[in-house]
């Protein structure tokens, strides 16, 4: 069975890493198509992709609808004898839907990783039309919260729930001292890590504000790139926190980043089911997280804490409190979010639909 995952852009992020892990699991049968961005850009940002470039395709689509991209998807499906198109987010859904509708033998699965974009009427209307026009699409939610909201938007759709997961053979506890030395982080500080695109929705500004309210030996390190890099850097300097906060930019390997941390914090304004929470906990790092989307389902209740979004005071108090706990969250991840289980569920669904 040949599977083609379609994503918006092949950059180093949660969804992209999940899809890439699925490719690595079954490299003979799984392919990835990125709608936007040239291959050179992806390989530069994420060098490991080069090892799998024969399984990767780049439409390099420009802004706006592209009939050429529809034909590009169809050509790949025919050339590779694709059995299943698996799309992630609304852009890939559009092109996957148009391609699968013209290939009778192709099954189509669409995974919704978050739901807040459907609050925009245009996005909801597009998906409503596609789901009613192409009846072969099967919808997958990544959390109970996403499932519930999807049912409210599309009550007639058949929806499965398959929680996100991580490779617990790769994301493991490690030597904290060595990890800190690699990133040149202070050895004796309490290090709070955060990771994600430097965009408004990720809420880093509130975590930066929270550091001011924590003891002086608490140190924040943020992994990720995005349009707010300079804005956040300027804010850090304005608050005179340059000696307590570092923006690392693009980080690889992320496993080493988590291993360097005492606490992982995700202060997002909106989320679906973020992989970073699972990755950090698999490395036995307790988490503090905004209580948004499906995050509550991911946080180990024994070691982790949920906080209101956009609340620096609550973040600061939770980080101090969690540092006094001794419970470790890895067993929670092994039991509930194992990557082998995710693969098994998806392949059963591929066969079933």
Write a brief structural summary.
The chain is built from 15 helices and 13 strands.
Which stretches are poorly predicted, pLDDT < 50 over at least 5 residues? none
| CATH architecture tag of the largest domain | 3-Layer(aba) Sandwich
Superfamily (CATH H level) name of the largest domain: Glycogen Phosphorylase B
Give me the count of strands: 13
Mean pLDDT: 95
Query: Which value, in Å, is the CA radius of gyration?
Result: 20 Å
**CATH topology title of the largest domain:** Rossmann fold
- Major sheet: order of its strands? 3-2-1-4-5-6-7
Explained architecture:
This protein is an alpha/beta fold and 353 residues long. It folds into two domains: 3-165 and 338-352, Glycogen Phosphorylase B (Rossmann fold, 3-Layer(aba) Sandwich); 176-336, Rossmann fold (3-Layer(aba) Sandwich). It contains 15 helices and 13 strands. The strands form two sheets. It has a seven-stranded parallel beta sheet, with helices on both faces. The chain has a six-stranded parallel beta sheet with strand order 10-9-8-11-12-13, sandwiched between helices. α4 links the parallel β4 and β5. α3 crosses α4 (90-100), α4 packs parallel to α5 and α8 packs across α13. The relative contact order is 0.11. The model has no long low-confidence stretch (mean pLDDT 95). This is GDP-mannose-dependent alpha-(1-6)-phosphatidylinositol monomannoside mannosyltransferase.
